[in-house]
Design a protein that fits this description.
The chain is elongated. α2 runs antiparallel to α3. It has 2 domains: 129 residues, Helix Hairpins (Orthogonal Bundle), CATH 1.10.287; 48 residues. By secondary structure, it is mainly α. Helix content is 89%, strand content 0%.
Length: 182
């Protein structure tokens, strides 16, 4: 999933293009960072859902084992057999979910590291590209705002806002698809 984004970012950085195209490359890099932020948020949500599923499965396993013990205490062999079978199934499911959570956490760590690298590359590319007259004017204006005590929005805040908007747009598209199916 992240290979396409990483490839686009690397291509943008490695491209030896004339200054006129640098702005386009920086814009593409910025879009790739935003997409990656959305992907990281979705991956976090997926891991969180997997953890919840694992916890629920562990509770079901504990219930099955408890029922088996209780049935054993009253010597209900049929119920003990059923509880043993269910406990075995729940134990298997717990093992699978534990591996799923571990893999999800590893993937999330990789994605977060990639996002950090992409952000650093974007910051470097933005710093290296030549500024337009409009950007120079805007920079002077921001310095004046800051001199008077105002705050300038930082890149992370802008990227977070763009990522939230992209995620909301995706959720809206998903909701519309579901509503059409029903």
């Amino acid at each position: 999933m992240f290979d396409r984004l990483r490839t686009a970012l690397r291509a943008a950085l490695d491209a030896a293009t004339p200054p006129a195209n640098v702005r386009d490359l920086v814009r593409e890099m910025r879009e790739a960072v935003i997409e990656m932020k959305v992907a990281v948020v979705e991956l976090r949500d997926t891991v969180a859902r997997s953890v919840e599923e694992l916890e629920a499965e562990r509770r079901r396993l504990a219930d099955a084992e408890r029922r088996g013990r209780l049935a054993g205490e009253i010597q209900d062999h049929e119920t003990v057999d059923v509880a043993v079978r269910f406990a075995a199934k729940h134990r298997e499911r717990v093992a699978v979910l534990e591996r799923k959570v571990a893999a999800g956490r590893e993937e999330l760590a990789l994605a977060e590291r990639d996002l950090g690298e992409m952000r650093a590359d974007l910051m470097r590319a933005q710093a290296e590209r030549p500024a337009t007259e409009a950007e120079r004017t805007a920079e002077r204006a921001w310095r004046e705002v800051e001199r008077r005590g105002g705050l300038r929005p930082d890149l992370d805040a802008e990227l977070d806002r763009a990522a939230r908007e992209a995620a909301a747009d995706q959720q809206l598209r998903d909701l519309k698809k579901r509503m059409k199916k029903e």
